[in-house]
Each structure stands twice: as C-alpha cells, then as structure tokens.
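User: I'm preparing a small set of examples for a lab meeting where we compare how different chains pack in three dimensions. I only have the primary sequence for this one, and I'd like the structure in token form so I can line it up with the others. Please keep the answer compact; I'll paste it straight into my notes.
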Amino acid sequence: MSAHTVIRRELWTLTPDREPDAEPLTFAMECAVCDQRSVIGEDVTEAQDWALRHAGRNPSHHSYRELITRPWRTWMGAG
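Assistant: Understood. Below is the structure token output for the 79-residue chain.
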C-alpha cells in the first residue's frame, strides 16, 4: 500500500464571531514608552481611562497602543 495526498480546493469564509457563545470583544491600552498595560476588559472606556491616568502620572508618556481582541470564526463555503 502507498501513501497518497488528496488536495481539494474549498472556499472558506472568515468573519467576526457574533454567535451567542462567542468570546467577548476585549480592549486594553499599552503605553508605547514603558510598555505598561491596562487590565484587559470588555469596556473600552476603562482602558482609555487607564491611559489618561497613566499619562497624568507620567507626563512624558504621550504614545499609546489600543489592543483589541476580536473573536473570529471560519466555515467552509461562501458567506
């Protein structure tokens, strides 16, 4: 018996996961100067408030990164 490979081209769809059981969309802010980071949470305003407090405590820290975790899902076939 010999091994063989079957390759089949399929069309896949990729979309944000909005199913009821999907993981939540989460946010955090990270200081681009010192790499300190807010807690990760579902409310973007909490992350933004952290950045403002951090800037107030560190007046030379002006640059921040928004870190978003968005769940995605795939399935075979066109959307």
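A couple of notes for your slides: The longest helix spans residues 44-57. The radius of gyration is 21 Å.

User: Perfect, thanks.
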